[in-house]
Amino acid sequence: MFDNKRYSRQTILPEIGEVGQARLRSSRVLCVGAGGLGSPALLYLAAAGVGKIGIIDPDSVDESNLHRQILYCQEDIGGSKASIAAEKISALNRTVEVISWQEKLNSINASDIFAGFDLVIDGTDNFTSKYLINDCAIKLNLPVVYGSISQFEGRVSIFWAKFGPCYRCIYPTPPLWVLPIVPSQV
User: Fold this and answer.
1) Which residue, 27, 47, 126, 137, could crosslink 142 as a Cys pair with Cβ 3.0–4.6 Å?
2) Do residues 32 and 129 lie in contact, with contact meaning Cβ atoms separated by under 8 Å?
3) Which residue spans within 107-176 are E strands per DSSP?
4) Model confidence at 174, in pLDDT bands (50, 70, 90)?
């Protein structure tokens, strides 16, 4: 079960209730990228009581990103984003199972990593990763919550090929400077 006091503000909402909270507790969400988009998403997933959270990010915390990567602090500079994020969200909610990968998502590891999750959050900042996430999600029939930020512009969407268009449907061709990823590689 779950902590009634901790989630009482959520469970009083008719749209969530105890049944919805139990569904959150049994859900498994993978966040690809633990930076500007991923770090706040991870905080909210853990706080809401999502049962299993996966984090994959090969990068280290950099001082120039602290203003927007709100999960990290000065003492984290130079450390692995995935590892530090896992520690911090575990500390926020000890009932959450957290798995982290301190590596780059690629066509070799993507299917194995995605296989243990119900939903994928795309918090990446490059086209190669976005197309890889899309292709793997289609292969495994997973929904993808997509986010993108550029200067003062933001985009968000949900792609689930089973019920509508995918990322490649909307953006069929990567920019010319991006090496295309062939879906059969995933």
Assistant:
1) 137
2) yes
3) 119-122, 144-150, 153-159
4) confident
